[in-house]
């Protein structure tokens, strides 16, 4: 990425702003400038008041106040000063109310953009091509959708606002100083500018390095925790939990060390600037001591220098720290700019078409290669399935069964050939209608940590009870559910941990039935189950066989395929044979 850190950060935000938000951002900047001007004016107004108040008769002598004093015909300096103090207090009151309002507007603006960023990230990943999604892995996805937008807001947007408001304060202060005493400006510039630049140059690359290292390490921690608790049983039985704990601690030790270093770097600029300012004051003092005659004017210069430096130092410090924070959070800008290319976006076209499945489903010469893999995972598949048929798929591991089903489910799109439904090619314009009629039950059925009802309806708020009961009955779940103390509202535990393998799969089947699936894909639904559970699942499949639903079953156990009209055998992505169940059973016997 090219350009300075400020330009890069501004560009990264600009990507998310609508034209009206861009105008609003400019408006915010103007408001910030006004706030800074009022801040400086507020402080500057105190100086002349203090001066006239300290000296009896000071008001009359003051070029600024005496015309006002005379115009309003004040009777005593005391009353005049009292009015002046009240005016100053009201001014501060109004100024602070105004700056609080600006602050509120600014934070609301930042919060709105933050929402836009989160929305854009989550939209990016829900429309991400399936195989890239698998490559990224859930810790990275969680980091990119939850942490990165937060880091972007805290580490780019807020510091950018701070930077610009401090620039405004410094500008207004510096202009006032130039107008008041150009020599003072010269000394301040000589002292503060090189220090600021040197401090920033010394720390910026380290800050960036710390930021990208923390960004690399955090998802690793999340991955370790995820693996530890997903595989808790296996890991505990192998007595390997300590290894996971140690690698987590090892990773966290690095993160904590970098966090501490980053905190230290954020403190350093102020210390450095303070040291140089003190050095400036001492140098002028020394000069005053060693060159007699000029001492009184020099000492007043020291006073002014100290006052101006005191005013400028915190602002300059905040400017550097916010720039360093921008550097530290560079990784968020880089992460957000990933995958903006069209090839990573599979958003279905807005204009969607209906799908009518009355007669046939035809895989017409379908071939598919994974990106970067020359060997086809699925090659020239050409089969026709009639509506209502039950079709089995067998073949050794890696023969392409799951890939073929993923093509049918449109998670993968064939490079050549077509999927024809009643003779019509299935395109991205049919996606939503297609998803409405196709269902999928995997070996490890996905279950949420919610009730059975929510798991079957996928959290429907307006549940159709009749359909739900039908789904429970057809999936052979009715007696199990009615035996539970809380029935269908019983919670299933994390990933269905309170259920048996067979119950989990039957919930998957019930989910597909509740959706009124017309084509159901059962992927290796019984291979991981014991005999009793297999019997339970097969019973549900037998019931399904009586329905009009077209079923495609991938199975390792031949018995699962007993209701199939045809069974296709795959090898190396191709169909090498078509069998009947009876033949297969005979061949085994
Ligand atoms: N995301 C991927 N990227 C690259 N190659 C892949 C990917 N997923 C699967 N493959 C490859 O595609 C081929 C077909 O895999 P597929 O999962 O379809 O086989 P399968 O018949 O379902 O196997 P199993 O019975 O073991 O599930 C295999 O050689 C596999 O290594």
Q: What key phrases describe this protein's structure?
A:
single chain, 10 strands, alpha/beta, binds adenosine-5'-triphosphate, 589 residues
3D structure, described in words:
This protein is an alpha/beta fold and 589 residues long. The protein is 64% helix and 10% strand. A hairpin with a 2-residue loop joins strand 4 (416-421) and strand 5 (424-425). The chain is elongated. The model has no long low-confidence stretch (mean pLDDT 87). The structure holds adenosine-5'-triphosphate (ATP). Adenosine-5'-triphosphate (ATP) binds at residues 131, 134, 370, 373, 377, 395, 397-403. Adenosine-5'-triphosphate binds at residues 131, 134, 370, 373, 377, 395, 397-403.
Instruction: Kindly state the percentage of residues in helix.
Output: 55-70%
- Please give the alpha-carbon distance between the first and last residues: 66 Å
Q: Rough shape?
A: elongated
Note the main sheet: 6 strands, mixed
Secondary-structure element order, N to C: HHHHHHHHHHHHEEEHEEHEHHHHEHEEEH
Main location: membrane
GO molecular function: ATP binding
InterPro entries: AAA+_ATPase (IPR003593), ABC1_TM_dom (IPR011527), ABC1_TM_sf (IPR036640), ABC_transporter-like_ATP-bd (IPR003439), ABC_transporter-like_CS (IPR017871), P-loop_NTPase (IPR027417), Type_1_exporter (IPR039421)
Protein name: ABC transporter ATP-binding protein
């Amino acid at each position: 990425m090219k350009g300075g850190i400020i330009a890069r950060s501004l560009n990264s935000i600009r990507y998310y702003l609508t034209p009206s938000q861009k105008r609003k951002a400019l408006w915010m900047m103007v408001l910030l400038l006004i706030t800074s001007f009022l801040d400086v004016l507020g402080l500057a107004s105190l100086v002349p008041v203090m001066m006239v108040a300290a000296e009896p008769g000071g008001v009359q002598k003051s070029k600024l106040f005496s015309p006002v004093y005379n115009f309003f015909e004040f009777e005593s300096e005391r009353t005049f000063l009292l009015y002046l103090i009240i005016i100053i207090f009201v001014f501060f009151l109004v100024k602070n109310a105004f700056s609080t309002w600006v602050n509120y507007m600014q934070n609301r603006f930042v919060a709105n953009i933050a929402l836009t960023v989160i929305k854009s990230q989550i939209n990016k990943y829900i429309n991400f091509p399936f195989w890239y999604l698998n490559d990224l892995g859930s810790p990275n996805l969680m980091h990119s959708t939850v942490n990165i937008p937060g880091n972007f807001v805290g580490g780019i947007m807020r510091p950018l606002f701070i930077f610009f408001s401090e620039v405004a304060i410094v500008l207004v202060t510096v202009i006032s100083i130039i107008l008041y005493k150009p020599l003072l400006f010269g000394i301040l510039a000589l002292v503060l500018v090189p220090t600021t630049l040197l401090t920033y140059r010394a720390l910026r690359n380290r800050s960036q390095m710390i930021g990208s290292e923390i960004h690399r390490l955090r998802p690793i921690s999340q991955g370790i925790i995820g693996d530890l608790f997903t595989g808790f049983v296996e890991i505990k039985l192998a007595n390997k939990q300590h290894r996971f704990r140690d690698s987590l601690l090892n990773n966290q030790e690095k993160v904590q060390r970098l966090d501490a270093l980053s905190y230290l770097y954020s403190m350093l600029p102020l210390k450095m600037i303070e040291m140089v300012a003190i050095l400036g004051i001492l140098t002028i003092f020394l000069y005053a001591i060693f060159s007699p005659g000029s001492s009184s004017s020099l000492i007043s210069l020291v006073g002014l220098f100290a006052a101006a430096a005191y005013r400028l130092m915190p602002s300059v410090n905040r400017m550097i720290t916010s720039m360093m924070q921008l550097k530290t959070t560079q990784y968020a800008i880089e992460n957000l700019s990933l995958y903006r290319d069209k090839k990573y976006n599979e958003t279905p076209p807005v204009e969607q078409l209906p799908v009518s499945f009355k007669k046939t489903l035809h895989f017409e010469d379908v071939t598919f290669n994974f990106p970067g893999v020359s060997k086809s995972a699925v090659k020239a598949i050409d089969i026709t399935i009639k509506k209502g048929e039950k079709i089995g798929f067998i073949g050794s591991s890696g023969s392409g069964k799951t890939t073929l089903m993923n093509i049918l489910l449109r998670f993968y799109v064939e490079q050549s050939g077509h999927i024809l439904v009643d003779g019509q090619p299935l395109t991205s314009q049919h996606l939503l209608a297609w998803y409405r009629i196709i269902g999928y039950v995997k070996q490890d059925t996905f279950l949420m940590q919610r009730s059975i009802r929510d798991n079957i309806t996928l959290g429907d708020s307006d549940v159709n009870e009749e359909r739900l009961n039908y789904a429970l009955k057809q999936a052979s779940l009715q007696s199990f559910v009615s035996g539970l103390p809380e029935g269908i509202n019983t919670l299933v535990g994390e990933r269905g941990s309170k259920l048996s393998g067979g119950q989990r799969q039957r919930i998957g089947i019930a989910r597909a039935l509740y959706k009124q699936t017309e084509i159901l894909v059962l992927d290796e639904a019984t291979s991981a189950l014991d005999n009793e559970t297999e019997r339970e699942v097969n019973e549900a499949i037998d019931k399904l066989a009586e329905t009009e639903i077209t079923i495609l079953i991938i199975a390792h156990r031949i018995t699962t395929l007993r209701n199939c009209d045809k069974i296709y055998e795959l090898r190396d992505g191709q169909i090498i044979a078509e069998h009947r169940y009876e033949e297969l059973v005979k061949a085994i016997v």
